[in-house]
Amino acid sequence: MQDGSLFIDWITITQHHQGAVLPILTGGVTVHYSAEGVPVFERNQSTRIQGSHDTSVRVGCDGFRVSLSGNPGRLSRKDNVFNHGLAGTIEACNRVLVELGLPPFTTSGAHRPAGAAREVASTGRGAVVSRLDVTRNYATGSESSARAFIRWLGGRSIARMKRGQAGDESVWWANTRHMLKAYVKHLEMVKHGSAKDDDLVIWLQKQGVVRVELELKKRLLSELGLNDLANLTDEKLAEIYEQQIEPFKRADRSCDDDILEALPRRSRALAAAWLAGHDVRDLIGKTQLYVHAKVLRECGIDILQPRNVERFPVKVRFIDLQPLAVPEWYSLRAA
Questions:
Q1: Residue extents of the structural domains in the chain
Q2: What is the C-alpha to C-alpha distance for residues 11 and 150, in angstroms, rounded to an integer?
Q3: CA distance 318 to 248
């Protein structure tokens, strides 16, 4: 994240302060009752902290447990085309907490190894992260190239992830561990109220900027031992990001022959028919179709979906895209 091209777009973070008596900050209380009507559990709900430019984060405190969720680096800024890395994001979180009279998030506490799944309130433990969105912008050269890139990505399949798509503007894959999404950035900004003639929107449109986001959910962070803030670094996040977007790169080849050579031999004929644009559902029985579909989905090909036969120009292939660093004229300061 040294050049600012990779940044944090969302964080959900909590810290327990055992023995402390902190100000209560709540947006309400949720109470759970037993079948006999006896209250057995209650939790304070967070409250919305509003900034300028219609931005906000949610903060809560029940007297010893402090939580924050949202995009603190976006707070009181006109846009979030670029944002802070890990350290800058935590600093932004702590500015909000200090203004509310709450203690900042810290990394103090014992090291927790990968696989330590349960979030417990242990004495001396630092802040715990249960969601983290890592983001990067890529330039394709034009709006038409950006839309073509989204269409091309829409033909990619990632094993054990459910895919969704909104035309040629956005595409996403999700499961209980993480979520990947890619979208044309200037179109997303216009949908959220930015003017089409805004200088930044025009700049993004001319460069054909596509944003690729990785949402790390609580389960995956815990499995990787990265739910403790003390264990997180920009370098680790960059490594995970590159690993998770690897299916995009693996599915991209210079020609269909290269793709076929990398596939299991028994499924190549059916894959070749799909690559040629045929509806393979008419070629074999349903049982065998799903057997081959499962095998090929592991390789990044979903033969149950119509193939986008549009040839994707080499210059805008994902593997050749250049990450966008923060321009000198762009400011990360809150207004």
A1: 6-31+39-251+315-323, 256-311
A2: 26
A3: 7
